[in-house]
Amino acid sequence: MIPHLRATHKKKLNPLGFIKGSPRKGRFYRKSLITILLIASIPGLITGMTMYWLVIGQMEKEFNRLHQNQIMNRAENLADQFSYMELSLSHWAFEPRFGEELKEMDYVYQFTETVDIMKTLYVLQGSNPLIQKVELYVNEPQPILFNRSYSELTDLSLIESYNEYLKDGSHIYWTDRIPGQPLAEQRTKGTENNPDHLLQTDSGEGLVLVHKIPGGSLRPFGALIVKLDNKKVTNLLKTLTPYDQGSTFLMDQKGNILLSGGDHEGSSSKQLNEEIRQKVDLSQDKGSLLYTFEGISYSVSYGKMNRIDSDWIYVSAAPITDITAPLLSVSKGIVLMSTAGLLLAILLSWLVSRRIYTPIERLLRLLSAESTGNNPVPPAVNVDEFELLEAQWNELVMERSTVRKRLELQLPQLRDGYIMQLIQGHLSAHSETDLRQRLEDLGFRVQDQRFLLVRLQLTGYSKLSGRFLEQDKGLVTLTVVNIIEEFAEQRFEQVSVLNFHDLSAAILLTGEEEKLKASVLEWSEELMVVINQIMKMNVTIMVGRSTSSIRDLPSLFMELEQAEAFHSIEELNQLLDLDHLTLAHDIEQSSYPFLIERDLIHAIRTGKEEEAGNLLHDFVKQVTQRQCTIYQLQQMMLQLLASMLHMMLQSGIPPYELFSGRNLYDELAQLREPLQIEAWLKSEVIAPFIAFMEDRSHSGLKPAVERTMERIDQQYMTDISLEACADLEDMTPYALSKAFKQVAGINFIDYVTFRRMDMAKRLLRETDLKINEIADQVGYQHSYFNRIFKKQEGLTPGQYREQWNR
């Protein structure tokens, strides 16, 4: 069916180009609706959005100012705590017990003074909750460290680390060098992780306050070292974020981060701090800014914090969303109310516009009822309903003429498709009258006409591998169909050529009874010559019986398909006339090459792929030397395939798993040329089985199994045993039995039985020896031979010989 015609049959279209009953309106309606919407709803929406943005923007600025003032107060409190520690440490540094006498002091004999010093350090450590540890280090007369105990330092790298505290130019200063950590480790860590010796709080480091002793001395020989508790300082730093979210950190004068804290973790926190650090103006004493990170707006406040040896800069970043959260809910309510008002305005506008459009709608409905149903051209741009109604009538008239011309061009394709369904039996439910009427509607003259079907099959395609590929069958068939159509139109008035795309075609011809059959036979002979010259292929043409009833065509076509199976497989042109061919005749019994099949199955079982290929070629050659039909060829090849699959099943390899559930019988039945069948069996059946067997067999056991199989082939008529063969191969009977099953796919005793039965059947077929003589020659006693033969073949030896000699 033409797609254009299908569309017009499904739904009736109105003159405006819209489906009848559709809610879509024209340009006039849209203009009216848009005008009402602008008047009724847009001002309310603009008011709501303006209120939202103005209020939110103003509130963000106000809260940013309040946030800055609050952070400044908390920063002063943090600075006071650091100042208190600096003042306390300076007070203790000027204590007499930390004076010049420490140089001359013997800490072992003056045990009381030593204990006093340690108690003083404990007091200093407990003077402030931010202090984690207090140490005293002196390097004269020898390096000594007071911590929780007294210890003399002998590690040179550790001594060098503590001496670094005495080399700084200031008497009291802040640093990030960890007391007790070797200097080499500090330098490595500073180089790899922090080129500017920044403090990495997440690695376990902390701030350190150092005061040299004696206080005020020009040549200090020791230092009081106060290490702050990193966790407590970080918690104190978090108080700079008033809503317990965001991020805070301290920087030195150069902009290096000393300490940080916040609700972010890992790389996200570092990235936020680093981006804010780059935005801070270090030249100002204080300031604020708005910054967006990962879709969240932050209010950033910063200022300077004066320390005893340098100035620090504190930075606090708090999310604006937390500050403005209460206001956001109110603003959203305003927007929702405005949106609700907009929806109400749209509904009211739609109701009003419907009333305005009612007269035009009645006119369009009236014209739609008179529409011819043709598919009109879509409406032009900038043309309203009134202008369109005038032009649409002319468009429909022109469309009617165009559809008629298209239908005339599509009639041959429609006719061929209908005839294809007819001969394949899909229209069997229709009466003879209906079929004739439909053919007449498609331009076929059927009155006083007889119908005749011809089937054409190309052969010899496998020999054209140099010219065409396997996937080119459809292209070759199309070329032949075009040749047939051109050649038939010169002889017959009415012809329909059906393409099956598989090197075959069918032809329906009509004519008078007395001339039709003779003309078709003569034309078929000429057609074979033409196809031979152009395509270089042979042709088999089957001419059916003529009939005057259209309902008989499916059965006549089925006869043609059956006749195709009985033409000769020889590579030559053939012309078959069903009036002179009886399909039910007795097919001459062709001798099946059992001996070649036996050797072929044995070669496949033992993995001899080249020998199997040669035997398969001999099998096909012996079959095709006789004048057999395609039917006979397919039956014998199907029998061979069944024998192969049976052997595989006996070898312990289920064909269903080996071939992934493929229907090999159906695939083989589709092939018709001997060369194609031979190539398919080699590549699709024999090669996969041998490859599977080779993968399964063990490379070290395969030679031993092959020698054992050759020994059985030569000595099967003797009393050969598994134990004797295992001794010859220096193996245990169990190992040889297991290897034999794995490599050959069959048990040892089953293989011996197979060789003996194979020779016995051969002697029964080809000789007149008695049953007991045959039993002796194959290694069996007479009584046991009868039982084992019937178990294997289902017949007694005598019955087998009688059946074969019939």
TrEMBL record:
Keywords: DNA-binding, Membrane, Transcription, Transcription regulation, Transmembrane, Transmembrane helix. It holds the Pfam family HTH_18. Residues 706-803 form the HTH araC/xylS-type domain. It comes from the Bacteria. SUPFAM superfamilies: Homeodomain-like. This is AraC family transcriptional regulator. The chain crosses the membrane at residues 33-55. SMART domains: HTH_ARAC (SM00342).
